[in-house]
Write a structure and sequence with these properties.
The chain is mostly helical. About 85% of the residues lie in helices and about 0% in strands. Helix 7 packs antiparallel against helix 14. The longest helix is centred in the N-terminal third of the chain and has 44 residues.
């Protein structure tokens, strides 16, 4: 193996094992390792690569790893960096999913998972707040976010909301023809249900799991927590393959393990269709990221040069914020329904906002509280 390729593999395998804390922590670790310690790129080049990763759909920290790998060791470096960063998290989550299937019904384990659920709501609420401060940067993006949320409440398909938001944002920025915008929204309205129906079925199949996660991997922009909103719409609401509680468990597991949050897909795939489902979900969710990173030079350049494309991306980000907010509202009905759940959520939000305690530690604290309630008979 080429020296540079091996260097890339060793670094991102290590980050995949030790990268707790979510995307923001991953970016900080990569900046320290690739800019300060190794000098692979300058601080300005790192900022450019991070901007490119944020423009692409998919897991931004994983795509940043791929772009850094490409910069250091070419196309093979891109693949090696992505695989190195993803595989440790996937293996850990896969083992946890198997364990969950074996002992998840035991009272003490169920209590720990239930104890983490109010903390999951707090973690995602904090993500909504942080994303909102960067996404809602004017009256137009604010109106689009609120309008998208209202549309979701009314039951509009999330793909229609995303496309409609991008069209409206483009129209606001460019003064596009009203008929043009209406036509694009109409096309989205016809295409989205057809696409959803194409993978619908009475039960979870390996092919259905792969198709669902492939679609999600192509559509998720912004924070990795947008994945929660898409999974809820796809697997809880549309197919009824998961319960709300199972989805919250999956998000919790994704938070307390290292590496990309998108490894949550591996857990969900295993719950739905065993080992084959875990493999299908993992490939489906991460495949678009490899393809997008590979073509990023062309795609990102065009987005940056096109005012309309940049405006469309702003609209998608505003709609993604609404998707996250909607998911939090719906998931909190169960996790925060009791006074205990509400107290844990409020406490966790306060700690996240005022201290440096990470989400993983708070989730473990929630698990401990849940276990104590069972042991203490509370």
């Amino acid at each position: 193996m080429d020296g540079r390729v091996g260097e890339v593999m060793r670094l991102f395998l290590r980050l995949g094992v030790t990268g707790f804390g979510g995307p923001a922590a991953h970016v900080a670790l990569m900046e320290d390792a690739c800019v300060r310690v190794r000098g692979w790129v300058t601080r300005e080049e790192f900022a450019d690569l991070l901007g490119a990763a944020n423009v692409l759909p998919g897991p931004s920290s994983t795509e940043l790893a791929m772009l850094l790998g490409h910069r250091r060791a070419g196309w093979l470096g891109l693949v090696v960096a992505g695989v190195g960063f993803i595989v440790p998290a996937v293996v850990i989550v896969w083992v946890v999913a198997w364990w969950y299937g074996k002992v998840g019904a035991r009272p003490e384990v169920a209590a720990m998972l239930v104890g983490m659920q109010p903390v999951v709501v707090a973690v995602v609420l904090q993500a909504v707040w942080r994303l909102g401060r960067s996404v809602v940067n004017g009256w137009a993006s604010g109106v689009i976010a609120v309008g998208s949320f209202v549309a979701l409440v009314m039951g509009v398909h999330e793909l229609i909301v995303l496309v409609g938001a991008s069209v409206v944002a483009t129209g606001v920025r460019e003064g596009a023809n009203v008929r043009e915008r209406a036509a694009l929204v109409g096309v989205a309205g016809l295409a989205a249900p057809v696409g959803a129906a194409a993978i619908a079925g009475s039960g979870a199949t390996v092919g259905g799991v792969f198709a669902s996660f492939l679609k999600i991997g192509c559509l998720v922009f912004g924070s990795g927590y947008v994945l929660l909103a898409f999974m809820r719409a796809e697997f809880v609401q549309r197919h009824a393959w998961l319960t709300e509680g199972q989805l919250l468990d999956a998000i919790a597991i994704g938070q307390v393990t290292p590496g990309p949050v998108f490894s949550t897909a591996t857990f969900v795939g295993f719950v739905l269709a065993g080992h084959a489902g875990a493999a299908a979900a993992t490939i489906g969710i991460f495949l678009p990221a490899f393809l997008m990173a590979a073509v990023s030079g062309v795609v990102v350049g065009r987005v940056r040069r096109s005012a309309r494309a940049a405006a469309a991306l702003d609209g998608v980000n505003a709609a993604s914020l609404a998707l996250m907010a909607m998911a939090v509202v719906l998931l909190s009905r169960g996790a925060v329904a009791s006074p205990y759940g509400g107290l844990v959520t409020v406490t966790a939000i306060g700690l996240l906002m005022t201290t440096r305690i990470g989400a993983a530690w708070l989730l473990l604290g929630g698990a401990a509280l849940g276990l104590l309630r069972v042991v203490g008979g509370g």
